[in-house]
Write a structure and sequence with these properties.
6-stranded antiparallel sheet, 39% helix, globular, alpha+beta
Length: 439
């Protein structure tokens, strides 16, 4: 049985008693509205029909995670050792200075959410790599917990065992692990760090409560409000020992002049930062271009080269070359434009879904953009209950693989009617479950 068979069984169950499950869905909506599953001030939209995976899929996610972690480590290590290789990325002086700061622990990317278009263990493409500020763990876990209380979940569980993926406590475990590797002693004062204007407040609060439940102090801190004094980083009178960095590097660099105290303390390594700015090497979308270049292929082994060529879309920088511009305009349905270093799908243009004049303007005026071969999102049928009716919708989806300390930990999934699947479009967040038949 594959995931499409599971989806069909779930839809047939909903069809058998749509009025029952509509009431079930409305109750779940009310619970979500009162939960911490909040994005930009609004409850996260979801479906009663979760994202279901087989053991074969989860095994594939583990293998993908292991492979991309190995490649990531090779690229990061080469960046540190080879000044010529660093030039291929073209990062700014400030970015390079922060990246090359002495390591506080060995793991190059302590946390990442690697987003893929996934159809099968053999057929998948990477869409985006998130390291700095990887988020949405709370969305999956909170909505998943609420759905386990639903009648639909209970009814489906009569024949199937559904197991979720824990993403909060397991990450707090890793935070404390990296602190000890860094050389930290005793109980650290923890800071969850981000600009107030960017902070995912509800999720930060969940992590804060988890950390405090273990007997550690924790504050949610804006780096603007920190001070470097007496050999340490302070937030008022609160000395910070361990930073859980949710501050993404592009925002750090945009406002670097406002956070000089924090930057100086970071460069002096007076606190443990999880993660360190070296994770930016893979977070920046330039990595999709660099990973396929000969400068990278030359130090990957044969299996790694095949993995890259088969699962990373062709990616190049958008330049002012008139021949390139004419090609992108003339073949717009084959391409997508992305800013090199933004998150949450900001500034993304999908050629086939963009009006001709808007696409041409983006191609001609876009600065610090990459262009990629367009990958059509894989679609799955889901039961959508709306206005008292059950509809079966074919929804595109993107799978975010959470990788903690180099190992697969769990999944974040968004689905949409659109090709652009993100929080800035119409979407649903679906909690993820490993589904196994009961014997």
């Amino acid at each position: 049985m594959n995931y499409r068979d599971l989806d069909e069984k779930f839809i047939n169950m909903l069809k058998d008693n749509p009025s029952k499950y509509l009431k079930d869905y409305l109750l779940a909506e009310e619970k979500v509205s009162r939960s911490t599953a909040i994005y930009k001030g609004e409850p996260v939209p979801f479906l009663l029909h979760p994202m279901m995976w087989t053991r074969e899929d989860v095994d594939a996610f583990e293998k993908i995670s292991k492979r991309i972690t190995g490649i990531t480590d090779k690229i990061t290590d080469r960046y540190f050792k080879d000044s010529d290789y660093r030039k291929v990325f073209g990062y700014s002086e400030d970015a390079e200075r922060l990246i090359l700061r002495k390591k506080g622990y060995e793991r190059n990317v302590p946390i990442g959410r690697f987003d893929i278009f996934y159809e099968s263990p053999e057929n998948f493409y990477f869409c985006e790599i998130n390291t700095d500020g990887s988020s949405a763990m709370n969305e999956d876990n909170t909505i998943g917990r609420i759905l386990t209380e639903s009648e639909a979940f209970k009814d489906f569980s009569k024949d199937f065992k559904l197991t979720g993926f824990e993403l909060i406590e397991s990450w707090v475990d890793k935070l404390l692990y990296f602190y000890k590797e860094w050389g930290g002693k005793g109980k650290p004062n923890v800071a969850i760090l981000d600009f107030k204007t960017s902070a995912t407040s509800s999720e930060f609060q969940v992590f804060k409560e988890s950390i405090e439940a273990r007997g550690f102090n924790c504050e949610i801190v804006d780096p603007v409000d920190t001070e470097y004094r007496d050999g340490g980083l302070y937030y008022g009178n609160y000395k910070i020992d361990l930073v859980y960095r949710r501050l993404v590097t592009f925002e750090l660099l945009e406002r670097i002049d406002e956070i000089g105290e924090f930057i100086n303390a970071y460069m002096d390594n007076v606190f443990c930062s999880v993660g360190e700015v070296r994770s930016q090497i893979m977070h920046n979308k330039e990595s999709f271009r660099v990973i396929r270049k000969e400068e990278t292929m030359s130090f990957l082994d044969e299996e790694e080269r095949d993995f890259v060529l088969n699962h990373f879309p062709e990616t190049e920088r958008l330049t002012r070359d008139e021949g390139l511009i004419k090609k992108l305009i003339g073949e717009k349905d084959n391409y997508v434009l992305k800013p090199s270093d933004k998150n949450a799908s900001q500034g993304v243009f999908i050629g086939k879904d963009t009006k001709k004049e808007d696409w041409e303007r983006a191609v001609r005026e876009g600065e610090e953009y990459i262009y990629q071969g367009f990958i059509t999102p894989v679609r799955r049928n889901h039961g959508v209950l709306e206005n008292g009716r059950l509809e079966v919708a074919s929804l595109g989806y993107i799978v975010g693989l959470f990788i903690y300390d180099g190992a697969f930990q769990g999944i974040y999934t968004r689905v949409s009617h659109n090709d652009l699947i993100s929080g800035i479009t119409d979407y649903y967040t679906l909690p993820n479950f490993l589904v196994e038949e009961k014997r």
